[in-house]
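Its record is quoted verbatim for completeness.
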Amino acid sequence: MKRASTLFTEADHRRVTEAVARAEARSSAEIVPVIASSSGRYDRAEDMVGLWFGLITLCVGWWLLQGVEPSEWGVPRPRLGLLPVVGLVLGGWVLGVVLAHLSGSLRLLFTPRSEQKAEVERAARQAFFDRRIHHTDAGSGLLVYVSMLERMAVVLADAQVLEKLGQPKLDALCASLVSELKKGSYTDALCHTIEQAGAALAEALPAQAQNRNELTDALVVMD
């Protein structure tokens, strides 16, 4: 699984920081962009992958090794005994768990999309509070959150921004962000969405005479 920190150069970080600074200069809002490698552990998916690998290993082993051979008294007995069967299942399960642990994409194959969405939304809310975006003086924080593994995004706003822009506008910003991400550049997608948010916020929450910068303008990367 790719780590978010490996995708951004110093120049990319500067571009995002400058985009946030320009957007905030036009309004009294605080915009915080966050990109995460993933939003959930999906431990249950690892167990599911292990179970399937165990069953597949058992079937392959049974097909290759199973048969009967006569005992010394002429009574047929299975060539594949209980201990080899248990060993095949456990070995396959361990192999599956290890592969799933190393491959986020493999875990997602066994995780419903609804569960992925719930994990991304939970992680976005956690980042919203951990980064104190909810704690600005005017309640004007805006989170732009991207989760790489799940390929999902969330735009989450504090009370004042939500009241002025409305949830449909936030949903439109999120949809635009996802559309831009599909083009392949995380930096371009973030900058474009931040600019769009800045334009909307400039009308809804114009800059004040003392436009204090309460939160960092830098891109927050969560590996």
The first helix runs from residue 10 to 25. The radius of gyration is 26 Å. The helical segments are 10-25, 43-65, 82-102, 104-109, 113-130, 159-165, 167-181, 186-204. The chain has a mean pLDDT of 86.
